[in-house]
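Usage

Read records sequentially. Each one opens with the input sequence:
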Amino acid sequence: MNGLQSRHLLGLENTPAEDIQLILNTVDSFREVIDRRIKRVPTLRGITVLNLFYEPSTRTRISFELAEKRLSADTINFSTSTSSVKKGESLRDTVQNIEAMKIDMVVVRHSSPGVPYFLTQCMKSNIINAGDGAHEHPTQALLDMYTIWKKYGRLDGLRVVLIGDVMHSRVIRSNIWCLKTMGASVALGGPSTLMPKEVERFGCDVYTDIDKALDGADVVNVMRIQLERQQLGMFPSQREYTNLFGVNSGHMKLLNKNYTIMHPGPMNRGVEITSKVADSNKSVILEQVTNGQAVRMAVLYLLSGRKEEEGE
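and closes with the structure output:
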């Protein structure tokens, strides 16, 4: 099999295990590329990729840009602040006009859920979701999966705990779907006010007591608390959130011996996670960032439909 079953990567809720495993298997060769002195291959030479970011981003945008450049693709970076969007142009007109300049792939981040799917209805390009509202962030979950898979050699049977704002986190949603598809046991931990009403549909264990959530965990993935939620009254104060749900070194005794600490970033140190935990030798936070670039290279390559020999 030389490609994914879909032309697009819109989310992981309905992505089959075969596609997820294919991506994970493909990442290794690109992980080797970014460890070389010359970090470039001709895999996507002649392919033009549009980075369509309607939301601020540092890690994801830079990661995608580097992935594209290291695959020798031509890249276009779209900024709403200097575009015709400021003049009232619709999203459909914006993307169709850009596509008329003969682009091949679009990496899109938008605050509205469903925008990546909308683009598939009005464009011929391959669409990659780089985060849409509180819906999904598939490449972040895939880099999390790869990081876990490389450490344990499996995902099946691991107990993974996701701590944080379950209601608003697209990263948590993508992680849930991906982990469950690959056979992991998933638990969610956080305040009841930050749990969605339909949380049962995720099919996960749900805890509002962090000690119970962490008991016997192999992997703990701590999510950033969006501080704007405090202004909305979703929790009384940062101090209270930290006291009840912040992950600290005292919690580590509850975890399995070969445990792993993860965080998708950016971190609020001292709020959802202490520096001692984030910087410990059990933390793979920086490794996640490095792996993210290789994962995005693999996704771009697989969606492009290029034959494997062209990437060698």
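Summary fields computed downstream for this record:
- Residues 308-312 have pLDDT under 50 and may be disordered.
- The chain has two domains: 17-137+290-311, 138-284.
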